[in-house]
Amino acid sequence: MNIEDLLRETLSDMAVEEQPPPPGRFLQARGRRPRRGLVLATAAAAAVAVLAAGSALAVQGLSSRGPGNPTGQSSRPSPDRLRPPTLTVKQGLRLSQIFEQLSAVTGKPVREFRRAAEDGEALGLPTYAKGRLEGFAFPGTYEVPPSSSPSGILASMVTRFERAAEDSGLVEGARRLHRTPLEVVTVASIIEAETYDKRDMPKVARVIYNRLNRTPRMKLQLDGTVLYGAGKFGRAASNEDLRTSSPYNTYTHAGLPPGPIGNPGADAIEAALRPATGSWLYFVATDPRKGTVKFASSGAEFLELVAERAKNLRKG
Predict the structure, then answer these.
(1) Domain boundaries, the chain
(2) Per-residue pLDDT tens for 138-148?
């Protein structure tokens, strides 16, 4: 179809169509096919502007083949090209990692996302978050239109968290555990950092609560919290890391760290709210390569698991 035919068909379609909806509808409704008239009108408007200038670029704007198109045929824009880019945030990522991903997708500097994260009220954070976004940027897939502001993107993540919190009964569940909602989210973030398999999450939750509830309390002694406080990534903290004075060092400080160490998903939150029943006080990744984790209720059992881990590591 040539330019003139396209314009005539477009104007004919528009004459009988209702008033088009706001552009926001097409930016936000994923998977909904744009109305043919709107797509053609957009292409036609571009064509008119170029034709008025007498330029051959009109074919480039309407054809997927570009200026060297040997057939001279035009193609309509694919609905997929009208959708904004998406970002999938995985469970357990730290805010620093999420900001890097958002910066890569939007082209906006990381510092703009950091600055937006400081305004908890604008993001709609629950009061129990105490103004900190860490732990409340809920994992999932998000559409990120180029026009979105850092604050708007982060606020949508908080909205998803609020929905998940309501679905899981977070506030009431925390009360049942004699914990605050922030403490439960913190436990969930630790579970996310310490587990390989979501099936182990309720048991890891039980280990954490057993240690916290023990009299006298046992230190959590978790490498994940230590690494977070040191700004490092990995599974095992070094001896130097274990000597740091960070409030996230659960080898030196009793109780939970000040807040979440990542952004947990629904499975980790569910495990933190509904831990398994058991007397375990330890868990050991006996075969890290396979993601095998075993649990122990006594120091003697714990040492056996440590020996098993060492044996498996030597095999590699």
Answers:
(1) 3-82, 86-168, 170-315
(2) 999 999 998 89
